[in-house]
Amino acid sequence: MSYQLIDGKGIAAKIRLELKEEVDYLIQQGITPGLVVILVGNHPASESYVKGKIKASAEVGIDSQLIRLPAEITETELLARIVALNEDPSVDGILVQLPLPDHIDADRVIQTIDPKKDVDGFTPINMGNLVIGQEAFIPCTPAGIMELFKRYEIDVAGKHAVVIGRSNIVGKPISLLLQQANATVTMCHSRTRDLLKFTQQADIIIAAVGREHMLTSDYIKPGAVVIDVGINRNAEGKLVGDVKFDEVAPLTKAITPVPKGVGPMTIAMLMANTVLAAKRR
Ligand code: GUN
Fold first, then answer.
1. Is residue 224 part of a domain?
2. Scanning 48, 52, 181, 272, which has the fewest C-beta atoms within 10 Å of its C-beta?
3. Res 64: pLDDT
4. Dmax over Cα atoms in the chain, in whole Å?
5. Any coiled-coil ranges, and where (predicted)?
C-alpha cells in the first residue's frame, strides 16, 4: 500500500517563511519580536534543541537571546532572572529549556513566567485556558501536530485517536486539541493494560512514549495515520522514533518520519507563538 510521508521539515520551512513576512511587517511598525531562551547547565539534547530555536529565530527575524546559566545556579537566582525578563518590554517570549537540574523546582520556575510571555504554553494559566477552550498559547509540539493535520487536510473529526503518553508537554495537550477538533480520544500510558487492543482500533495514533521503536506493525490498523513524537538516541547515537518506521509505514495512510517530522514543527510553532506574543504587546 502506498502511504503519504508527512514532511514536517518542509512544512516547518514554509511556516518560517510565512512568519518572516509577518515579522518584516511588525518591524516596520516598530515592533521587533524578542525571544529569550534560558539554558541551565549543558544537557546534551537541550544544547541541540536550543541551537535549533536560536537558528530558527534568526531566519524568521526574531531577536533572540540565549542566556546560559550554570547548573549550580540556585532556584532563587533563576526566579529573579525570570522576574526581570517578565518586566522587560523588549522581551515577548521567555522559554526555560527543560529538564532543569534536580535541585530546582521546574513547576515553580514555569509558574514564575508571565503567562503573556509563556510561548511554550506551559504555565497553569495557559494550560487552564486550553482545557476550557479559551485563548491560550498552545504547547509547541501539539500545536505542530495539529498544524500538520491542517496542512495535509487530515480531518480528525469523528475519528478515533489513540494518544500514547500522558506528559504535560505532549500527551495531555494533544488529547485536548484533538477533542476540540471533534476526535474521539483514548489516552494510553505506561500502565495501560493491553495497549495493542486500543491502538489496533485507532484511526490516528500519536506516539509520545520515548521508547525506541516500541510501536511495531502489530499495533497498527491498516490505513491509520501515525504521528511519531519520539526522539530517542539508539545504540549508534542515531535519532530514532517510537515507531518502527520501516515496517509500520507501508500499513499507514500517512506517517511522520523521525527525524524531519514533528521535531521541526515544534520549533516552527515556537516561532509562531513568539510572533503572536509580539502582536499582542
Ligand atoms: N524540553 C523538551 N521539549 C521542550 C519544550 O518544548 N520546551 C521546553 N522549554 N523544554 C523542552
1. yes
2. 48
3. 98
4. 57
5. none
Examine residue 123 and state whether it is found in any structural domain, yes or no.
no
Tell me the ipTM for this assembly.
0.95
CA dist., res. 35 & res. 45, Å (int): 20
Of ligand 1's atoms, which has the minimum distance to the CA of residue 46?
Answer: 1
> Which percentage of the chain shows pLDDT scores above 70?
100
Determine, yes or no, domain membership for 185.
yes
CB atoms within 10 A of CB 31: 16
Same domain flag for 94 and 184: no
Whether the per-residue pLDDT at 1 is higher than 90: the answer is: no
**Residue 93 φ then ψ, to 5°:** -130, 140
Tell me if 73 is assigned to a ligand binding site: no
The amino acid at 255: I
Among 113, 117, 120, 174, the mutation site with the greatest number of ligand 1 atoms within 8 A of its Cβ is: 120
Q: Which of 46, 169, 273 to mutate to test the pocket of ligand 1 (most atoms within 8 A of CB)?
A: 169
Residue 82: pLDDT over 80: yes
Is 57 within any annotated ligand binding site? Answer: no
